[in-house]
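User: Show me a protein chain along with its predicted structure.
Assistant: Here is one chain, sequence first, then structure tokens.
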Amino acid sequence: MTFSILATDGTGAVGIAVTSSSPAVAARCIHLRPGVGGASSQNVTDPRLGTALLDALETGVGAQAAMDDVVRDREHVEHRQLTVLGVGGDAAAFSGAGSLGVHRHVTGDRLAAAGNMLAGPEVVDAVAAGFDAADGDLELRLLSALEAGLDAGGEAGPVRSAGLSVVRDVPWRVTDLRVDWADTPVADLRSLLEVWLPQRDDYVTRGLDPTVAPSYGVPGDE
């Protein structure tokens, strides 16, 4: 019911964009840790596995070793579809035998993409290619990847939710956007990103040093 892209741009930023036919997909599937990397747990989702993958990465092992450790002897692992990416770009992916419908995963240079219940396996390849072809901030490249997946057929049915999150060099998500239930969640996510991205760095400044943070003219904050 889901396809996603997990990637880094080589600057230390790591992010995930995901869309699904089910509600609030980002709340369950996105796992990021600044300075460590990212992970996605999807298909019949077990959010605990994203945390486990990041914990394994943080011990210093590579992405494939982290994946092997997490899936080894794991109960119900055949129902899970997972991706993991270290901050340096090392990636691994896993699709259990019980992954739903048409499913596929790919890893590449600084990315991992995966999907299930797809219109066709080519959707995941389009997601990866869409990321590689895009320019600009990591957020824009991740969103372009989702759009490329939709253009290639997307899911077998309509998608209803989407999310996009990025971590950089502070201990929180510098971007964390969600559309939890909508007819056009990926298009709505782009609209949100167009509002958010010009303000993103200012909100980091607000967290670090509010004495130099800009005001946006909100009533009461002139």
